[in-house]
Amino acid sequence: MKQIRLEVDDEFEGIRLDKYITLNTESIISRSFLQKLIKSDLVKVNFKPQKASYLVKSDDVIEFEIPDPQEYIINPENIPLDILYEDDDVIVVNKPKGMVVHPAAGHYTGTLVNGLLYHCKDSLSGINGVLRPGIVHRIDKDTTGSVIACKNDVSHNEIAAQLKEHTITRRYRAICHGTIKEDELTINAPIGRSDKDRKKMAINSLNGKSAITHVKVLERLNGYTYIECRLETGRTHQIRVHMASIGHPLLGDDVYSNIKSKYNTNGQCLHAYILGFVHPTTKQYIETCAPIPEYMTKLLSLLHKI
């Protein structure tokens, strides 16, 4: 347990308590964890709990404790994996809906990493630490389809470089709300953290990073459109944010759409369909295709009948 004691100088007088603590403990505590401490009355000013909006005064004494970080042991689990490609360097898995890619708060079992640890034993790259062995990129929990993992650090660096250079082929299939008039279009809009909700991403011209999505209409289905999206960049929630930004949010996306779905999709209708990369050892181009998941084929069939 780490004890934190701060004494407010004249220059900081009049600013909010949460902002003051953030400015003075930026490297040791996250904003979200600080808010939890304050709401739990664990942050005291002159020995009394105060709200985040409290305006600090000169010579105020602020005290709180930071618990020691917990060390988690990630155990191998005998989880069936739908393997699309595997050799001594890489493995490509068709991830099912509802599976988290790697352990994180609230998800320390049942993840793709747990399954990979069982299947690959000790043959996973260690660059991303104990919680993300082998993982070079990820897709959302409710997005299905291709995920590549690496079995050694050399392969990891090679694939990571291709991701950074945007040379990996990534084509997704999705169903979105509304009828897209164009047969093909390109969405070029920077994506960054939302100014209104830090848990969400958004089109952010000031602080966002370049994001480009190429969209091709496959079918128009009575108020919905079946599309293929080719990523030129790979920002967090890129397809979901881009499609919502042009008025065609993904069906089932309860984060970036306020349209209630008529169908039980268990999250956004989004599937990582094609994944292509240059093999880190042989230098040959390899392309894998994850079959369209059953929930999506059934939904497409249903929409055809409307």
Quick one: CATH superfamily of the largest domain? Pseudouridine synthase
Kindly state the mean pLDDT as a whole number?
A: 92
Helix proportion range: 10-25%
CATH architecture verdict of the largest domain: 2-Layer Sandwich
Strand-residue fraction?
Answer: 25-35%
The gyration radius over C-alpha positions equals 23 Å
CATH-assigned fold name of the largest domain: Pseudouridine synthase
How many alpha or pi helices? 6
Total number of beta strands: 15
How many separate domains? 3
Structure description:
This protein has 306 residues and is of the alpha+beta class. It has three domains: 65 residues, Roll (Structural Genomics Hypothetical 15.5 Kd Protein In mrcA-pckA Intergenic Region, Chain A), CATH 3.10.290; 91 residues, Pseudouridine synthase; 141 residues, Pseudouridine synthase (2-Layer Sandwich). It is built from six helices and 15 strands. The model has no long low-confidence stretch (mean pLDDT 92).
List the main descriptive attributes of the protein structure presented here.
Pseudouridine synthase, alpha+beta, Structural Genomics Hypothetical 15.5 Kd Protein In mrcA-pckA Intergenic Region, Chain A
List the helices and strands and how they pair.
Elements (H helix, E strand, L loop, with lengths): L1 E6 L9 H8 L6 H9 L4 E2 L2 E2 L11 E6 L16 E4 L3 E6 L16 H9 L23 E7 L2 H12 L4 E9 L6 E5 L2 E3 L7 E3 L8 E9 L3 E8 L6 H8 L24 E9 L6 E5 L4 H12 L1
Parallel strand pairs: 7-14
Antiparallel strand pairs: 1-4, 2-3, 2-4, 5-6, 6-7, 8-13, 8-14, 9-12, 10-11, 12-13, 14-15
